[in-house]
């Protein structure tokens, strides 16, 4: 009976947000803002409560399997509609529903008065449903449904204010770039079925680990899964969609960039860590891609002036750090950073949303300054998020980043140095944004200054809760050096193939000391530039040096893609349209029509009422038939 209850709960967890979406779709604007917001939030919060129940039960059960029905059954292919909840998926469910609930609450205040208020919450509920489907699926096909679903919802949410054509372009860009990775995942599924004869994840892993088995396609499978992950998790070269996704409302940015869509690629690799650990070449590709992305995106963030764009490139950089850890085989460290990142990045994005809300839409940090005097709550919660992402002890980001750096050092001191360099870029651009927004002289425009205000409690309470998580989140995997028991790593042991790293305590203290000292040094450097010297970024790019222009222009990656991929594609499309389509295909069809018209036009002249002509034509026709009969 207890098992049946758990299975019912498992079904309800994704079912409740889906029900919320359906009810929103049915009633649409027939209900008020207040009811709509509370209604949408309630379903996700209930899903969070049920996720907590499942998480508690996993400790005893090990995993919960729920089979709904046989979905696709043809030949050797059997795809069930089934869920599997284990240590990995249970934590993901807590993140999705927990952080998702806070974002829903925050959105009630942020979206107040918007004409699409009810539609917005319908999309949020649908997004949560598909993300839960992705992490709960027991097979690759059902996972792919969730994978595509979050892509669809991201398109709807990024282009939420569809009256603005630039926002529509950003939504289309995100949708199209994600299709590249999605194609790779489809091909990977074909190869998986060809190699293992099944698409059920646990069966694939069991087949792969049979002693003495030879899997000739395994390298290709893992490489294709990695390409799929680069699309969703915005890694080089498929990263340019994510900064443009800032076109959506700020809660959307927090939802996409914190605990949901962008973490899907990380989840995919950790879920298949057994396969990846068997292909060291793919692991090397992941490691290199991750650290290059982390440094590349971090350097771009240094010169951005839109507060949301800074955080967007920060997300790309932090995801790169997670991929770096995955490539090192430090799956637990990567997942730990995924969790802490969900806390402090949601906090930072929602904090940025509070700033934008208080400044009536202003996002340019050059037009801010001194806001700590007017938005005290927002200032303090943003400051906590800042310390967490900068890896200042004892904030959560310190412990998760330290785990990645320790793993990198045991692989190579050079890799540790690259990881540390990525972290120092984070320190600089985050200190830069914080100092320019909250300290120094006010640069807020006079009209805006008259109406500047702190956000309402419906927005600040979720920020306070997230700040607590950003502060204390490191406890879940506290290392032995701090008298912790690395709970998270032990909890994930049944899922992961990695072994624990036994580092020398003295060495750990030295590496931590260097990291903390570097954070302090870079922070002081930023303080000297933006507070002591009072530097403010120039609004004229022409006055900047070459490197500053290069970073401000994001290394011209979008322009390169436009010149090398988009424009040639348009030209090829135009050629086929103008030549093949219009002149050959349409020309042939239209030509046949004109020929038929020509023949019929002349043929009708034979219908002239002359009986002698008719008899002559009949005799001529019969003679022709007789001739053909004798000939053949």
Keywords:
single chain; 632 residues; mainly alpha; two-stranded antiparallel ribbon; 25 helices; 2 strands; 3% strand
Task: Describe the protein's architecture and organization.
By secondary structure, the chain is mostly helical. The chain is 72% helix and 3% strand. It contains 25 helices and two strands. The chain has helices spanning 2-27, 33-61, 87-110, 117-136, 140-158, 165-196, 201-208, 218-232, 241-244, 250-257, 264-271, 273-277, 280-301, 307-328, 331-358, 376-389, 396-411, 413-438, 446-449, 457-472, 487-491, 505-532, 546-552, 557-603, 611-631, and strands at residues 64-74, 77-85. Strand 1 (64-74) and strand 2 (77-85) form a beta hairpin.
Give the helix/strand layout.
Elements lengths: L1 H26 L5 H29 L2 E11 L2 E9 L1 H24 L6 H20 L3 H19 L6 H32 L4 H8 L9 H15 L8 H4 L5 H8 L6 H8 L1 H5 L2 H22 L5 H22 L2 H28 L17 H14 L6 H16 L1 H26 L7 H4 L7 H16 L14 H5 L13 H28 L13 H7 L4 H47 L7 H21 L1
Antiparallel strand pairs: 1-2
- Compute the number of helices: 25
* Average pLDDT taken over every residue: 88
User: What is the gyration radius calculated from CA atoms?
Assistant: 30 Å
Proportion of residues in extended strands: under 5%
| Distance separating the two termini | 84 Å
**Helicity, as a percent range:** over 70%
Shape: globular
Secondary-structure element order, N to C: HHEEHHHHHHHHHHHHHHHHHHHHHHH
In spatial order, strands of the major sheet run 1-2
Major sheet size, sense and barrel closure: 2 strands, antiparallel
> What structural class should be given to the helix and strand makeup?
mainly alpha
- The unreliable regions are none
- Count of extended strands: 2
């Amino acid at each position: 009976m207890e098992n049946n209850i758990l299975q019912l709960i498992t079904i309800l967890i994704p079912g409740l947000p889906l029900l919320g979406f359906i009810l929103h779709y049915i009633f649409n604007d027939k209900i008020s803002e207040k009811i709509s917001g509370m209604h949408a939030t309630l379903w996700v919060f209930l899903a969070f409560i049920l996720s907590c129940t499942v998480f508690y039960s996993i400790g005893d059960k090990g995993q919960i399997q729920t089979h709904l029905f046989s979905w696709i059954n043809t030949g050797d292919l059997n795809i069930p509609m089934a869920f599997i909840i284990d240590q990995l998926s249970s934590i993901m469910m807590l993140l999705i529903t927990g952080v998702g609930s806070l974002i829903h609450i925050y959105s009630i205040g942020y979206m107040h008065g918007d004409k699409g208020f009810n539609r917005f919450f319908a999309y949020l509920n649908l997004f949560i449903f598909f993300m839960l489907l992705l992490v709960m699926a027991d097979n690759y096909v059902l996972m792919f449904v969730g994978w595509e679903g979050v892509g669809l919802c991201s398109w709807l949410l990024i282009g939420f204010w569809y009256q603005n054509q630039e926002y529509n372009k950003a939504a289309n860009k995100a949708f199209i770039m994600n299709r590249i990775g999605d194609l790779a995942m489809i091909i990977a599924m074909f190869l998986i079925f060809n190699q293992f004869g099944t698409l059920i994840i646990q069966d694939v892993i069991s087949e792969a680990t049979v002693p003495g088995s030879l899997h000739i396609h395994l390298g290709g499978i893992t490489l294709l899964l990695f390409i799929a992950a680069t699309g969703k998790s915005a890694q080089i070269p498929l990263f340019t969609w994510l900064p443009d996704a800032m076109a959506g409302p700020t809660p959307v940015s927090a939802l996409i960039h914190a605990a949901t869509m962008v973490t899907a690629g990380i989840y995919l690799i950790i879920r298949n860590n057994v396969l990846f650990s068997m292909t060291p070449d793919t692991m090397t590709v992941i490691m290199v891609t991750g650290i290059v992305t982390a440094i590349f995106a971090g350097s771009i963030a240094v010169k951005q002036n839109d507060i949301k764009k800074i955080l967007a490139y920060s997300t790309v950089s932090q995801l790169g750090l997670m991929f770096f850890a995955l490539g090192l085989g430090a799956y637990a460290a990567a997942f730990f950073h995924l969790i802490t990142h969900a806390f402090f990045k949601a906090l930072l994005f929602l904090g940025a949303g509070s700033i934008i809300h208080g400044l009536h839409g202003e996002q340019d940090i050059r037009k801010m300054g001194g806001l700590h005097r007017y938005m005290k709550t927002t200032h303090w919660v943003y400051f906590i998020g800042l310390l967490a992402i900068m890896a200042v002890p004892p904030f959560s980001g310190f412990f998760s980043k330290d785990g990645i750096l320790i793993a990198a050092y045991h692989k190579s001191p050079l890799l540790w140095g690259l990881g540390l360099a990525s972290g120092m870029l984070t320190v600089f651009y985050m200190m830069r944004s914080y100092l320019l927004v909250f300290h120094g002289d006010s640069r807020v425009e006079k009209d805006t200054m008259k109406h500047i205000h702190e956000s309402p409690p419906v927005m600040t309470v979720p920020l306070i809760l997230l700040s607590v998580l950003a502060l204390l989140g490191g406890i879940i995997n506290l290392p032995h050096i701090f008298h912790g028991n690395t709970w998270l790593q032990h909890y994930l042991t049944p899922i992961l193939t990695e072994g624990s790293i036994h580092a020398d305590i003295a060495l750990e203290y030295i590496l931590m000391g260097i990291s903390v000292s570097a954070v302090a040094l870079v922070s002081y450097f930023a303080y000297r530039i933006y507070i002591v010297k009072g530097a403010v970024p120039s609004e004229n790019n022409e006055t900047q040096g070459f490197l500053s222009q290069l970073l401000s222009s994001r290394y011209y990656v979008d322009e390169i893609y436009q010149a090398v991929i988009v424009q040639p594609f348009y030209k090829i499309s135009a050629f086929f349209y103008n030549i093949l389509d219009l002149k050959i295909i349409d020309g042939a069809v239209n030509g046949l029509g004109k020929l038929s018209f020509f023949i019929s036009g002349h043929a009708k002249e034979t219908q002239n009422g002359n009986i002698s002509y008719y008899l002559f034509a009949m005799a001529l026709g019969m003679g022709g038939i007789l001739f053909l009969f004798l000939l053949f």
